[in-house]
């Protein structure tokens, strides 16, 4: 499995909520993140922290 930018996030019920804006690893923008990798993900409209 992989995670890609611009892919919509969905709830368990299948409702679309937001889209992944960007994926980064150590400050470098990634085209995709593979399963079990630890990356930073930005999602517009959501603040955490």
Automatic annotation (TrEMBL):
* Any GO BP annotation: translation
Entry GO MF terms: GTP binding
Residue ranges of domain Elongation factor Tu-type in the record = 3-46
One Pfam family hit:
GTP_EFTU_D4
**Name this protein carries in UniProt:** Elongation factor Tu-type domain-containing protein
Organism expressing this protein natively = marine sediment metagenome
